[in-house]
């Protein structure tokens, strides 16, 4: 399925013949099947994330830094899913899948804000686990309520700033093509629609800067985990704490990084001869898989959260 972009200044004009007036290609099967699958996945994503967030918010014993950061991760997952699924559901039932240039930039902004916030949130959670296991006596002194709020503010401010600069750099490019070979808007795909004489050097440089900064974040997480593994091997209590909180975090990081890297590599070097449905499924993996997997991994592995969820649901069932 292909999205068709129309510049905002020409929203009311018809595209010229030969430019793809029918918009995206039709799915090979009934769209209602894909609509039902997408809607079910979206509702399930909302359910598992909201369940974890609500349980943490309502239970005062869970008002600790690691659980607050986990709530932030789940909230970001909801934002990521919500910038993708509603437009997808609309397109699956529409006769033609058309998006305005402004709408495309808005979706692009939301998608990348989700990506950057996910990376920064995982970095903050790694820092929290480092303090909890490697410096337990100083943990409560260092990780105060004020520090938690500062880290959350930094996470969102940093992510919004990164995304805003990238979106502005992309928005300045004039479009000469209107076919977007994706079911959602991404920066690289929109840049490829720009005119041949457009200056994309700044976009490329900024892209490399972002890539380097987030690879640095990943490196910091891995370095912190080397210290965590060493510390956890010394004491049984630290080993248990590592298995309960750090292993889910590491799995979350690996799932998200693998999904995102696969999308980046496929977008730049993937074959266009691949089945369209397969292309779309692989491209959307980082927007679909992590928001579903994150709360499940933490909900199953963290005893405190798992027991609270079971208690609340069993308590409601009794009444």
Q: What's the short story on this structure?
A:
This is Olfactory receptor. Pfam families: 7tm_4. This protein is mainly α and 319 residues long.
Can you offer a commentary on this structure?
There is one protein chain. This protein has helices spanning 31-58, 65-82, 85-93, 101-134, 139-142, 145-171, 187-191, 201-232, 236-269, 276-283, 285-301, 303-318; strands at 3-6, 98-100, 179-180. It is 73% helix and 3% strand. With 319 residues, it is mainly alpha-helical. Helix 4 (101-134) packs antiparallel against helix 9 (236-269), helix 8 runs antiparallel to helix 9 (236-269) and helix 9 packs antiparallel against helix 11. The protein contains twelve helices and three strands, in the order βαααβαααβαααααα. The protein is globular, with a radius of gyration of 22 Å. The protein has a three-stranded mixed beta sheet. It has a single domain (31-318), classed as Rhodopsin 7-helix transmembrane proteins (Rhopdopsin 7-helix transmembrane proteins, Up-down Bundle).
Structural key phrases:
3-stranded mixed β-sheet, globular, single chain, mainly alpha, 73% helix, Rhopdopsin 7-helix transmembrane proteins
Class in CATH? Mainly Alpha
CATH architecture: Up-down Bundle
Helix content: over 70%
- Dominant shape: globular
- Overall number of structural domains: 1
Strand order of the largest sheet: 2-1-3
User: What is the alpha-carbon Rg in Å?
Assistant: 22 Å
Q: Are there runs of 5+ residues with pLDDT below 50, and where?
A: 8-28
- Averaged pLDDT, please? 80
Could you spell the SSE succession in H and E letters? EHHHEHHHEHHHHHH
- Give the terminus-to-terminus CA distance: 47 Å
Main beta-sheet annotation: 3 strands, mixed
Query: Could you say which structural class the secondary elements and strand pairing correspond to?
Result: mainly alpha
Beta strand %? under 5%
Question: What is the CATH fold-level name?
Answer: Rhopdopsin 7-helix transmembrane proteins
How many beta-strand runs? 3
């Amino acid at each position: 399925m292909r999205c068709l972009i129309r510049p905002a200044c020409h929203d009311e004009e018809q595209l010229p013949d030969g430019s793809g007036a029918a918009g995206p290609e039709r799915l090979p099967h009934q769209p209602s099947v894909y609509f039902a699958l997408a809607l079910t996945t979206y509702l399930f994503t909302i359910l598992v994330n909201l369940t974890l967030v609500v349980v943490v918010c309502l239970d005062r014993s869970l008002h600790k830094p690691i659980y607050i950061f986990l709530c932030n991760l789940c909230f970001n997952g909801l934002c990521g899913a919500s910038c993708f699924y509603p437009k997808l559901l609309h397109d699956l039932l529409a006769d033609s899948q058309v998006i305005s240039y402004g709408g495309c930039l808005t979706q692009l902004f939301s998608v990348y804000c989700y990506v950057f916030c996910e990376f920064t949130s995982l970095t903050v959670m790694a820092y929290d686990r480092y303090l909890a296991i490697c410096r337990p006596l100083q943990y409560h002194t260092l990780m105060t309520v004020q520090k938690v709020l500062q880290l959350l503010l930094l996470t969102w401010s940093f992510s919004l700033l990164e995304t805003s600069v990238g979106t502005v750099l992309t928005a300045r490019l004039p479009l000469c093509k209107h076919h977007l070979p994706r079911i959602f808007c991404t920066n690289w795909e929109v840049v490829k629609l720009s005119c041949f004489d457009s200056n994309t050097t700044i976009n490329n440089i900024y892209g490399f800067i972002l890539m380097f900064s987030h690879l640095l974040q990943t490196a910091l997480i891995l370095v912190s985990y080397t210290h965590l593994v060493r510390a956890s091997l010394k004491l049984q209590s630290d080993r248990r704490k590592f298995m309960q909180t750090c292993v889910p975090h590491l799995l979350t990081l690996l799932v998200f990084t693998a999904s995102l890297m696969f999308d980046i590599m496929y977008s730049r070097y993937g074959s266009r001869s691949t089945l369209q449905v397969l292309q779309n499924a692989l491209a959307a993996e980082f927007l679909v898989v992590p928001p579903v997997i994150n709360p499940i991994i933490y909900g199953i592995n963290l005893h405190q959260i798992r027991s609270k969820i079971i208690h609340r649901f069993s308590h409601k069932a009794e009444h």
